[in-house]
């Protein structure tokens, strides 16, 4: 495939490479069977050249300052010599066709910078499907030499889990008043966070400091400390919980203050990310996380593929209308209906 070569060619002119990346991602997002086959070939060709970037997940409610932060951080990183790709998972676009993340001009300077590549969320399909496309787009960007990939999402639905499941580090943005109502912060999302950033600290420094203290203690309660995998890893390393050794060997989620608008705290943020990266590389957690993610992705896509095949099986399709009528009409228990349909598929599937 000719554009695979352009993607991999570090000497290719930026415009040509961007065009090749866009073409590749469009191919990945296509629902046509022949396109999917080409996309699989492309991914297989690119795979040996992927995995060298740092994958950073960023989430937060609309208005918290995600795009301001990514613009500031992206330009800061480019200044340090990095190439930055920004991908987005916008669950609102898959549910309603509308878009929380895409309906305004975002990241004005970053989007036109030749060392940055920004791609909005695929706009149709289930969250699982969109996450799959984004993950594949991430591989294309890595193959093209982007060494920092930022995956952004809004704090609604299950999209945070999807982003945390495809990145090396998951960062949650919060407002300075977040600490006033910790209940409002979804516990499950807090557990995913490797780093919490209190943005807009310039507006209310006191509130930001309060939020930082409150979230720090909340993280101690239900953060990685309570995580069985973390406890196991500490045991394996013969580290005593709470000892300086344990603190050093394993990353403890942190809370920082920042102003994306003024750029204050961005340097300290990146120092923390760099620390995270070297610590998790040294203790093997980074590799473990990626291995687990790749397998989870495989199983998720198998589940989705089986469901798709099941729904399109001729005998299932034949039985489905009457079964649905019987279940909704109250004459057939849902569990029996499910067993009947599964059996219909089993009996007639050619081996
Ligand atoms: P997003 O919806 O999370 O992407 O949020 P935006 O980045 O669009 O920011 C929402 C609003 O907050 C914009 O008007 C920004 O200028 C403003 N904003 C973002 N970060 C900061 C900050 O650190 N300080 C202040 N004062 N305003 C900010």
TrEMBL record:
Keywords on record: Hydrolase
InterPro entries: GTPase_ArgK, P-loop_NTPase
Pfam families linked: MeaB (PF03308)
The organism's place on the tree of life at top rank: Bacteria
UniProt EC number: 3.6.5.-
MF-aspect GO terms: hydrolase activity
Family recorded in the similarity comment: Belongs to the SIMIBI class G3E GTPase family. ArgK/MeaB subfamily.
The protein, known as: Methylmalonyl Co-A mutase-associated GTPase MeaB
Organism whose genome encodes this protein: Variovorax rhizosphaerae
Name of the coding gene: meaB
């Amino acid at each position: 495939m000719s554009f695979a070569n352009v993607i991999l060619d570090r000497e290719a002119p930026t415009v040509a490479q961007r065009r090749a990346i866009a073409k590749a991602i469009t191919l990945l997002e296509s629902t046509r069977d022949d396109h999917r086959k080409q996309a699989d070939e492309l991914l297989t060709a690119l795979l040996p050249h992927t995995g060298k970037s740092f994958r950073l997940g960023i989430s937060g409610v609309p208005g918290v300052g995600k795009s301001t932060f990514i613009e500031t951080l992206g330009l800061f990183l480019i200044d340090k010599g990095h190439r930055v790709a920004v991908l987005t998972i916008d669950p609102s676009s898959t549910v309603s066709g509308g878009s929380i993340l895409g309906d305004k001009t975002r990241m004005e300077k970053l989007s036109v910078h030749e060392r940055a590549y920004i791609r909005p969320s695929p706009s149709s399909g289930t969250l699982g499907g969109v996450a799959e496309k984004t993950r594949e787009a991430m591989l294309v960007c890595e193959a093209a030499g982007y060494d920092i990939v930022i995956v952004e999402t809004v704090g609604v639905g299950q999209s945070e889990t999807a982003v945390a499941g495809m990145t090396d580090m998951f960062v949650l943005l919060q407002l300075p008043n977040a600490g006033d109502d910790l209940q409002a912060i979804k516990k499950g999302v807090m557990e995913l966070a490797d780093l919490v950033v209190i943005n807009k600290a310039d507006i209310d420094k006191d509130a930001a400091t309060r939020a930082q203290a409150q979230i720090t203690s909340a993280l101690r309660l239900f953060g990685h400390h309570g995580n069985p995998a973390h406890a196991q890893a500490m045991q394996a390393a013969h580290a005593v919980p709470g000892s300086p050794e344990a603190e050093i060997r394993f990353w403890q989620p942190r809370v920082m203050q920042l102003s994306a608008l003024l750029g204050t705290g961005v340097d300290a943020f990146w120092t923390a990310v760099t620390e995270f990266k070297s610590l998790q590389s040294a203790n093997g957690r980074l590799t473990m996380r990626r291995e687990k993610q790749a397998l989870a992705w495989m199983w998720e896509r198998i589940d989705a593929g089986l469901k798709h095949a099941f729904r399109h099986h001729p005998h299932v399709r034949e039985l489905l209308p009457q079964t649905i009528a019987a279940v909704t009409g109250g004459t057939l228990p849902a569990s029996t209906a499910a067993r009947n349909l599964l059996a219909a598929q089993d009996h007639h599937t050619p081996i």
